[in-house]
Amino acid sequence: MFKVIGISGSLRNSSLNSLFLRAMALICPQGICFEISSLPGKLPLFNPDLEDAPPEIVTRWRQELRQADLFLIVSPEYAHGISGAFKNSLDWLVSSGEFLDKPVALPNLSPRTDLAQGHLQEIITVMGGVVSENCSPSASLDCRYVLPDITEQQLIDHPHISPRLQQLWLNISGVLHSA
Which residue ranges does the record assign to the NADPH-dependent FMN reductase-like domain (predicted)? Predict the structure, then answer.
């Protein structure tokens, strides 16, 4: 059984990124355990003085991620980058090795997040993660992965979006089986 951890770069309750992850959880294929992390927004501000003896919640965050075979990460764009809260959660991981040599699926869910996507890809690369291009599709105005004012079930039932979500799981499964 492979383990995939989903991480949303948004703290908003109505986040389309979090909706996407919840929809992906509903159609997770057999042989893959998919969990969405709830910890990124709960972490204290990063302090390098605490890296060797981090707060308990940071230790839990690191342990959770160590169990993953692949990360599925989605993020909105704020001021041409990722949110400060999300960046903070990643800062706690820079030198601890959770991303080292692990594949990362990095779908770009909005046609307007190219700058954040590049920012996030650079951070993941610095942490030693391997962004899988095959698992990192980019949305466009004609090729959407989420829609506003829609539920998870409506998203996975949508005639144009559902095949894209299924294809993403097929691609993720291929990466996991080839590792």
Answer: 3-132
